Amino acid sequence: MWRNSVSFSSKLINSNKSLFNPSSCSGANDVVRPLLHCRSEFHPYSSSPPSSSDYLKLGFQPSDGLPALSAAAVDLASLASKSAQLTRHYGRCYWELSKARLSMLVVATSGTGFVLGSGSAVDFAGLCCTCAGTMMVAASANSLNQVFEKYNDAKMKRTMQRPLPSGRITRPHAVAWACTAGLAGTALLASKANMLAAGLAASNLILYAFVYTPLKQIHPVNTWVGAVVGAIPPLLGWAAASGQVSLNAMILPAALYFWQIPHFMALAYLCRNDYAAGGFRMFSLADASGQRTAAVALRNCAYLIPLGYVAYDWGVTSGWFCIESTILTLAISATAFSFYKDRTTHKARRMFHASLLYLPVFMSGILFHRISDNQQCLVEGSSQSIAELSMSSQDGSVIQKDKLKKHRPPVSYASVAPFPFLPVPSYVSS
């Protein structure tokens, strides 16, 4: 009996071995192998996920949504990456075409003119619109300048890596960008400011792109024409704020005009070899010794000295600006005189850096010490009351004259004696 039970158990074990033996019958093998494959693929420690073919082996139908969604996600990621690259590329090209740092300096002068022409209250919304319109017009002018000077820039070391000479952007694309920016900026100034400001912006764009740019390759007078271009933005800002151009509005443009001459002369002296290679006829190219270039720079620095007195005498700023402007102008004149005495690259670079420092300090001072309309009315009213008091006095003429001398600003004497070409103040009578 035990022998029969043992034989039965051995038969049962052998039959089970034959069931899981790969060399057994094909029917059993075909049934078990997918199950074993399924276990190995779905094991928690398995490294590879099941594929659609595995689902088919098990008799399941795979879902078509998962592969489609993954492919769409990959396409969207690739498209987003390419869009970001294009945005960075063209954004960089537009930034360089616009000469953004130079354009922002132009915007600063325009904004200063707007504040000076605003009187007692500054319209900040109008200021922002004026600055934005000026920025777009300046970007358009600088872009057109590079469009016309593409082949000249390719010959100069400091400009050969610009977008057009380097081939990073095509000329039609740059023209389209310049026209779009120029029209948008002019339209913004016309709608948010006034037509006078828009006309000044459009005329300045034409003067820079179509007069100054070709003149650089014809005659050295281009530097003075470029100085006129740089003097218009503060006038634009004043016109945008007040709607008119008055005599007081000419102080900051005059400062910009006289400042640009020594600034450009120093730059032209430092880059005279580069300008010669590019085919630009700068003033410094015909001056091998640099003496005439330094003399022109020194002379225009001297022209800046009386502007602080004029600003005070015309009621634009307080008396403190006279002192600050004089000290600042004497400092830049000293660097110009140093360059005139010793015409070296080091002295020219020093004068160039001094000119870069002069303009923001000058504009900050004129803004800080500016007199609004209300303050000017108070000053005029006090002067008028003093005059009436002196005329109504019968026996105290000496006392009233002493009072007038005390209230008379010291600049009145300076503006008459050292600078006879300045207008005589109204309070200096015969």
Automatic annotation (TrEMBL):
Transmembrane segments: 195-212, 224-241, 247-271, 292-312, 318-340, 352-371
Any one annotated GO CC term: membrane
Subcellular location field: Membrane
UniProt KW keywords: Heme biosynthesis, Membrane, Transferase, Transmembrane, Transmembrane helix
GO molecular function terms attached to this record: protoheme IX farnesyltransferase activity
InterPro entries: Protohaem_IX_farnesylTrfase (IPR006369), UbiA_prenyltransferase (IPR000537), UbiA_sf (IPR044878)
Membrane topology: Multi-pass membrane protein
GO biological process: heme A biosynthetic process
Identification of the protein by name: Heme O synthase
Organism: Rosa chinensis (China rose)
